[in-house]
């Protein structure tokens, strides 16, 4: 029986509730890896719970209240009492980060905050660990999902800013009061945190200049489209003349830029440095389950020793025969009945043809087909039969097709 | 004076030499963060150095020899003697990973291997830490830079496989004997490691089915282009019917797939899971300095306590006025001399016009310009002057343009 690992949860809104559900769902797996079974042993909201009691009964505090007070006081008190803290509070960190990080160092505890910036995109961990000693030159980030959704819709559908905002609100990508998102303030808080980590310099939210997307028009989008540019709300932190510039503003990007293709409510961050060239990371920037996943990653990281590869607890059977969509390329004699015979063999093996292109080449023809998903073994059996037909001029070529659409 | 942190370096090829240079370059910064100054205190190559002596004089071992023996023996011995080990050896881990990870657990040391898979792309750390408790459904990866470079060139220039391979060799993206890269074996070793971490199941290289790109032709590429598809060498690890499939093969991808736009010698990995939706990470997949950066990230991570945010050691001046290229959008009266007057004001502030589009709209005209990089303060000064001209009908709009091309 794994011993319990007690988590005090401060805040129980969308992310807090999603975290509690996700933790319950993954507790067995975490116990298998760590030998400890995590459970929420206390919840503090405006209407229930007593912080001192919850703290006394916990091994780790998860702070998802948001805002400055009482979150700041609770986090400082928890660290002073020797608890690791996991928080998603970008406002708190972008205003009081130095105080909180100093307290964590003083008390020898971990203060983790992956969920504060860019949802599941693991940019905090990568900057703090993988790139701890790197000489970063620049960070560009799309760190607000609401504005990226609005700009994506404006670009794709020609919608006005107002219509795209209403749609974002309807789908839950924008809040009833979207001010902090659309005016760039939310992204500015996140860039302050990223800049602090990447450039080893204290950066307060008040030092980040920002502009929002409220004034972007359909004409701007049209211009971007005509020139093959993307228009995004970009956060930038970069070395300039021996100093540091941290700012947020709309910007046109060339189509080849790694951030230009980041669509919908996604976030993405590109870190540039001479030695690494660049790393780009992307994923959902918000959403209850996604943010809760980032919180859970931090909680589990606080439970396991660093760089440990636990013994495997599962032993999935290794499957060799997998269904896929396939592309077939045949060179055949150009005569009647060829396509029918090929299609019949495919059909007998259960392969259903999605598209065919046939092109004559003198006496021969090239037949390119895509078939709907089928077990590889059956497709290969069909291809062997087809390869043996007298009108087939060369070994058929087979390439898989990954069918999912993204974005 | 920071105390020394002694590193024994096994192997001194391209990556080993790049690591030694990078470490020397970053040692001061690492000392500021960690209080310890890292230095290479012993180097083992085929012709110099004694392993036992190097081990005795080191706090951590970096293994960059490659191959199975003597690397395996050295790594096991180092861990048994209580040393953390950092390695980039994918062959070793994909064949003997379970033995090595068990030894690390037994001796309570860290075995880090970020550089073994996908160069600077931090996929090992993210799988082991951020996603330690996640229920991963699938991983798709472009984990071989040589083949991605060849396929990118074939797609972009219509080059044949043979010509693209020769070009890759000339540029150092392919080795003199490219067999392991182009036949998929290298990617298979990396996918075995990723699958082990993501699916908590032992996976040996021999269990990974793979195909290479040697048989891909210009016709296949043409077909892909015609249909808006990308053709990539894709490593896949996914749950199938309660089991696990791990494989490497060429595959067509729709243009919207996050991996479709990964070009040149870059690597990228997409991790899918219900709770996180998906995370995509990309960056250079090989190269001496890049791989050395991944090794250095592991070394520094072994030196600092987990989730620590060290005190800032720098205090860069925050710069508010930054040069950028700008887009200007003006609504003006449609009469002679307007463009000349606008251009003159811009010129006096030092703004050089890169492109102009003017469109008549009845009595008015719309003037859209892009200016070459200029300090924001000077551009804003010009815009204020322009806004005051009697023929300007609305407040000018200003949006930054990020000029770099990527990929």
Question: Could you characterize what this model shows?
Answer:
The structure is a homodimer. The first copy, chain A, is an alpha/beta fold. Chain A folds into three domains: about 5-115, NAD(P)-binding Rossmann-like Domain (Rossmann fold), CATH 3.40.50.720; about 125-285, Dihydrodipicolinate Reductase, domain 2; about 325-400, 2-Layer Sandwich (Alpha-Beta Plaits). Chain A is about 40% helix and about 30% strand. The first copy, chain A, has helices at about 15-35, 50-55, 70-80, 90-105, 125-130, 145-155, 160-170, 180, 185-200, 220-225, 290-305, 340-350, 375-385, and strands at about 5-10, 35-45, 60-65, 85, 110, 135-140, 210, 230-240, 245-255, 265-275, 275-285, 325-335, 355-360, 365-375, 395-400. In chain A, the strands form three sheets. The first copy, chain A, has a six-stranded mixed sheet with strand order 7-9-8-6-10-11. In chain A, strands 2-1-3-4-5 form a five-stranded parallel sheet, sandwiched between helices. In chain A, strand 4, helix 4 and strand 5 (about 110) form a beta-alpha-beta unit. In chain A, helix 3 (about 70-80) runs parallel beside helix 4 and helix 6 packs across helix 7 (about 160-170). The longest helix of chain A is centred in the N-terminal third of the chain and has 21 residues, at about 15-35. The interface between A and B is large, with 126 and 125 residues.
């Amino acid at each position: 029986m794994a011993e319990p690992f007690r988590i005090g949860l401060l805040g129980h809104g969308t992310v807090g509730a999603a975290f509690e559900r996700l933790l319950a769902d993954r507790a067995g797996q975490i116990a298998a890896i760590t030998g400890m079974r995590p459970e929420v042993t206390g919840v503090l909201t405006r209407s229930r719970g007593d912080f001192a009691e919850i703290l006394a009964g916990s091994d780790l505090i998860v702070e998802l209240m948001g805002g400055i007070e009482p979150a700041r006081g609770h986090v400082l008190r928890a660290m002073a009492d020797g608890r690791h803290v996991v928080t998603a509070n970008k406002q708190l960190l972008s205003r009081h980060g130095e105080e909180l990080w100093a307290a964590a160092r003083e008390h020898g505890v971990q203060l983790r905050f992956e969920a504060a910036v860019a949802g599941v995109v693991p940019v905090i961990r990568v900057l703090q660990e993988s790139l701890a000693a790197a000489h970063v030159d620049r960070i560009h980030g799309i760190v607000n999902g609401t504005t990226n959704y609005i700009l994506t819709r404006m670009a794709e559908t020609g919608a006005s800013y107002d219509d795209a905002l209403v749609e974002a609100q309807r789908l839950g990508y924008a809040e009833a009061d979207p001010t902090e998102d659309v005016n760039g303030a939310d992204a500015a808080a996140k860039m302050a945190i990223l800049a602090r980590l990447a450039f080893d310099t204290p950066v307060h939210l008040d030092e980040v200049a920002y502009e929002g997307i409220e004034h972007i028009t359909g004409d701007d989008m049209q211009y971007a489209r005509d020139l093959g540019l993307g228009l995004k709300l970009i956060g930038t932190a970069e070395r300039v003349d021996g100093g540091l510039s941290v700012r947020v503003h709309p910007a046109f990007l060339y189509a080849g830029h790694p951030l230009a293709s980041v669509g919908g409510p996604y976030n993405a961050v590109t870190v540039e440095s001479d030695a690494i060239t660049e790393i780009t990371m992307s994923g959902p920037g918000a959403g209850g389950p996604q943010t809760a996943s980032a919180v859970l990653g931090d909680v589990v990281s606080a439970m396991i020793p660093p760089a440990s590869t636990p013994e495997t607890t599962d032993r999935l059977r290794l499957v060799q025969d997998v269904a896929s969509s396939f592309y077939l390329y045949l060179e055949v004699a150009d005569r009647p009945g060829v396509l029918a015979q090929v299609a019949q063999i495919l059909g007998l093996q259960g392969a259903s043809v999605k598209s065919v292109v046939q092109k004559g080449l003198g006496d021969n023809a090239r037949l390119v087909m895509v078939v709907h998903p089928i077990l590889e073994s059956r497709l290969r059996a069909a291809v062997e039969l087809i390869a043996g037909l007298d009108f087939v001029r060369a070994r058929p070529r087979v390439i898989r097709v990954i069918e999912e659409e993204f974005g």
